[in-house]
User: Which sequence fits this backbone?
């Protein structure tokens, strides 16, 4: 394993790979700092150029963006109480309180170091577990893959912060859109309505750039913008005290372990891991009353958890070929566009690519630690740039990228229509993440369902003899029940908190 890892580092003698790693981490940090675009938007805009980068280069670039965005999101959370990413919401609870007390420098340092520790642990876990899990994944059959696909979609809908019903609607829409084109079992055209342009289905790049790139640009264009007053700490103000370091270290280690485990679970793992880490630290703390008023453990634990979850998300993608998060769906799309299909044999079939990407993650993680602290002043100054000024550039990149894929104006039209629909649906409270994940998982879901039905030969008890599939489906059922229960509790609380009508002001 050490020899393989050494060969992965040796591949960075190629300056192209090193340049892609630098571009990835810097771009990821920027989209993490600037609220709005996010890693999904950045990846979707760059998806069209991945065919020129090759599979290894695409993985290095996208891994750098993903890791960098988790770092960058904490900067605005701590300094401005404006989370750059959803996974940085919890960091703002105590990080911004430290800023108000003049301790923004130690908060940023603890966040960066905790992220570095968690990223290192997650990459080591990926390096250790991916080859071992590949051997187990070979034993999985169509029923297990069917259960995993349902788990990925079901848990994302059940655990999302928005409406579960709206998430289910978007999942159904994604599955329906992905069925357009050629029937994989019979070779017949379906749902093309006689259009030759739809014979191969809708372009995934066009759909993703539309619902994330164009829709985000339209959303930001309608927002009022005021330059925030940001005071970046000086270099000498970044050092934490010994007491802060002692409190942060165990929290970062606990958050790393918890985040890595939750990163293996389908759904919004990065967000859930931060809340789980925060709750854990508050429960085991000797002074829980400090949380919410500037507890350093409330910064270290969640930041470590979301970075560990980001690294762990690559395990199911590379081992099973199934993305459990929207960002991983875009990484899968980049691989498929380059003719690489991840799965149980990926590590054995593509050892050079796997170990080069592992080395790239180590390098990106170190780069982020080196770049983020000295350049925090530069990154915060970028907040003075109005997001609306960047949006024409984003839309231009989307149009060029979509057209360059197939030299087709139909794809450009699909992207623009998807962008308008995405903009309208976002304003109505619909999330685009379930839609994209459903589009990516539909081929695996359909083929697994067909094969499972064929193997069962009409026997409804066939799945009872597949314990792994039953465990996965049981976990989905538990998550759905908990989600329904949570929604019922929230509705009951809303009715309880509603003020009773007074005699002078009857309803």
Assistant:
């Amino acid at each position: 394993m050490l020899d393989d890892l050494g060969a992965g580092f040796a591949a960075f003698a190629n300056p192209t790979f090193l340049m892609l790693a630098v571009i990835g981490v810097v771009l990821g940090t920027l989209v993490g700092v600037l609220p709005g675009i996010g890693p999904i938007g950045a990846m979707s805009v760059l998806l069209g150029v991945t065919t020129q980068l090759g599979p290894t280069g695409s993985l290095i670039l996208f891994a750098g963006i993903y890791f960098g965005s988790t770092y960058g999101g904490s900067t605005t959370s701590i300094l401005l109480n404006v989370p750059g990413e959803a996974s940085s919401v919890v960091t703002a609870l105590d990080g911004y309180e430290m800023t108000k007390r003049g301790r923004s420098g130690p908060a940023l340092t603890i966040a960066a170091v905790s992220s570095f520790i968690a990223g290192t642990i997650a990459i080591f876990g990926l390096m250790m577990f991916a080859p071992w899990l590949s051997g187990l994944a070979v034993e999985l059959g169509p029923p297990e893959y069917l259960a995993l696909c349902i788990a990925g979609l079901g848990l994302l809908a059940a655990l999302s912060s928005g409406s579960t019903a709206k998430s289910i609607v978007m999942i159904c829409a994604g599955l329906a859109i992905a069925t357009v084109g050629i029937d994989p079992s019979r070779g017949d055209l379906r749902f093309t309505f006689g259009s030759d342009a739809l014979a191969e289905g809708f372009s995934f790049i066009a759909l993703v750039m539309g619902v994330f790139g164009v829709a985000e640009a339209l959303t930001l264009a309608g927002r009022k913008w005021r330059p925030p007053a940001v005071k970046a700490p000086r270099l000498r103000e970044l050092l934490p005290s010994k007491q802060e370091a002692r409190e942060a270290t165990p929290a970062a280690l606990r958050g790393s372990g918890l985040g890595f485990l939750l990163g293996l679970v389908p759904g919004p793992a990065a967000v859930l891991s931060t809340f789980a880490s925060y709750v854990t630290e508050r429960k085991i703390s000797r002074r829980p009353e400090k949380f919410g008023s500037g507890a350093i453990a409330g910064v270290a634990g969640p930041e470590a958890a979301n970075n560990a979850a980001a690294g762990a998300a690559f395990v199911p993608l590379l081992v099973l070929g199934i993305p459990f998060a929207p960002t991983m769906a875009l990484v899968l799309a980049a691989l498929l566009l380059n003719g690489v299909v991840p799965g149980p044999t990926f590590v054995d079939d593509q050892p050079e690519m796997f170990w080069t990407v592992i080395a790239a993650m180590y390098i990106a993680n170190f780069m982020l630690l080196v770049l983020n602290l000295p350049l925090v002043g530069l990154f915060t100054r970028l907040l003075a740039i109005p997001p609306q000024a960047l949006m024409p550039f984003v839309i231009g990149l989307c149009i060029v990228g979509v057209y360059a894929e197939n030299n087709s104006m139909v794809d450009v039209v699909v992207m623009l229509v998807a962008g308008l629909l995405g903009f309208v649906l976002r304003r109505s409270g619909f999330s685009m993440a379930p839609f994209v994940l459903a589009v990516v998982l539909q081929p695996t879901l359909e083929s697994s369902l067909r094969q499972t039905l064929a193997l069962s030969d009409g026997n409804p008890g066939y799945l009872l003899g597949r314990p792994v599939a039953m465990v996965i489906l049981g976990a989905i059922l538990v998550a759905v029940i908990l989600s329904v229960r949570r929604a019922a509790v929230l509705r009951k609380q809303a009715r309880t908190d509603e003020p009773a009508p007074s005699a002078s002001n009857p309803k």
Observations:
- Residues 2-492 form one domain.
